[in-house]
UniProtKB/TrEMBL annotation:
Active site residues according to the UniProt entry: D59, D268
Family of this protein: Belongs to the peptidase A1 family.
Protein name per UniProt: Peptidase A1 domain-containing protein
Domain of life: Eukaryota
GO MF annotation terms: aspartic-type endopeptidase activity
Length: 410
């Protein structure tokens, strides 16, 4: 997960059966948001006895689902200003420290379990790559789901009550209430769905629109598997047990490797942009600057470090494709290739009309390629935890009908 600029998001939870196969089940959730200006794709989850709605940023880079919440003090001075009323935690909902779910959570986080506040609660602290994080307590409460026959059912799921996200006096107005943890682990939301029988296969799929919204799929359905690119999931990374990695790849521009040495790749839907080691980002920037048309000018834009302007501005993805001809790609060790046209590395800034590079320098000592929303959008991406595979195929992700139609003809 990386820091994002949050903007207002509206919408209600849509959880419907999606093309269930004979041996399994799947559920479809509607997404809201975009790469810019929202900086995230989120779902609306209905939580608690009253099924109150909360906006959750989908994050395949972490396992813990959590809400900013009032842990019983009547307020939260170290929480942000969220779009809904803070979730009110009750001690009767706390998960005891000795509960196996507490063990699973800390194993996923790679942390030592310490019952610092007594045996009746499971405390946690999670940090993200951008330095943000959450401190809180694990609890259970009802999540409401709409089933195939139209009835709403509520079942208890474990999630975090985050009571410390910022320092006192540093509140920010944000437009999501928390995180939906979809990472690779055993305490993540989809593992809980499977254990409770909502789905029979631990498979996650998302289709992030290049425009607005998209879809998130839980479980296995009649997806176009034979037409997809598949790569084995890499073994768990040291100290990073909740990351989905398709292994190492070389980054190419117009079929030429920017560096012969491959880099470890991680898929992270909680990150807005894609992050590269400097040994790849520097030659990429130089090559892009050389390759663009003379009519484009490099300009300063407060949104991102490297931007271009043109007469009349950039208004659509078609404008990007007309002006930027370079095709980026990731070549994996098993021969699979992820093709990355301009919309997977450039973003249009509406208020300036500029086109900006959505690839940023990674952590100083990191040699990892972190693939964020900008590069994941415009394609169906599948995280198959049953078969240990990651797959992708280019699809329009604007609505469920278009997805279903494509599935039926592939």
């Amino acid at each position: 997960m990386a820091a994002v600029k949050w903007a207002p998001v509206v919408g209600l939870l849509l959880l419907l059966p999606l093309l269930p196969s004979a041996s399994s089940s799947a559920m479809l959730l509607k997404l809201h948001g975009n790469v810019y200006p929202d900086g995230h794709y989120c779902v609306t989850m209905n939580i608690g006895e009253q099924a109150n709605p909360y906006f959750l940023d989908i994050d395949t880079g972490s396992t813990l689902t959590w809400l900013e919440c009032d842990a019983g003090h009547g307020s939260c001075e170290t929480c942000n200003e969220v779009p809904h009323k803070l979730y009110q935690a009750k001690q009767s909902k706390f998960v005891p420290c000795a509960n196996p779910m507490c063990d699973a959570l800390h194993q996923d986080l790679g942390a030592t379990k310490i019952c610092k506040n007594g045996p009746q609660q499971c405390d946690y602290e999670t940090r993200y790559l951008d330095g943000s994080g959450s401190v809180g307590v694990l609890l259970t409460d009802k999540f409401a789901f709409q089933t195939a026959n139209g009835h709403n059912t509520g079942s208890d799921f474990a999630f975090g009550c985050g009571y410390k996200q910022v320092k006192k006096g540093h509140k920010q107005k944000v437009t999501v209430d928390g995180i939906l943890g979809l990472g690779r682990g055993s305490a993540d939301f989809v593992s809980q769905l499977k254990r409770q029988g909502f789905i029979t296969k631990n498979v996650i799929s998302h289709c992030l629109s290049t425009k607005e919204g998209g879809y998130l799929i839980f479980g296995e359905s009649d997806l176009p598997r034979s037409s997809m690119n598949w790569v084995p999931m890499a073994p768990v990374l040291p100290g990073k047990p909740n990351h989905y990695s398709p292994g190492q790849a070389t980054l190419q521009l117009d079929a030429k490797a920017l560096d012969a040495k491959p880099a470890q790749v991680v898929f992270d839907s909680g990150s807005t942009y894609t992050y590269l080691p400097r040994r790849l980002l520097t030659p990429l920037v130089h090559a892009l600057v050389r390759s663009v048309r003379k009519s484009l000018r490099v300009v300063k834009d407060p949104a991102l470090p490297l931007c271009w302007s043109r007469s009349g501005g950039f208004k659509s993805l078609d404008d990007l494709k007309k002006e930027f001809k370079s095709m980026m790609s990731l070549k994996f060790e098993n021969g699979a290739t992820m093709m990355l046209p301009p919309e997977n590395y450039l973003v249009i800034i509406p208020n300036t009309g500029n086109a900006c590079l959505g690839m940023m320098p990674g952590m100083p000592n990191s040699d990892m390629i972190l693939i964020g929303d900008i590069t994941l959008r415009g394609q169906l991406v599948i995280y198959d935890n049953e078969k240990g595979q990651l797959g992708w195929i280019r699809l329009p992700c604007e609505n469920a009908k278009s997805i279903s139609a494509i599935f039926s003809r592939i």
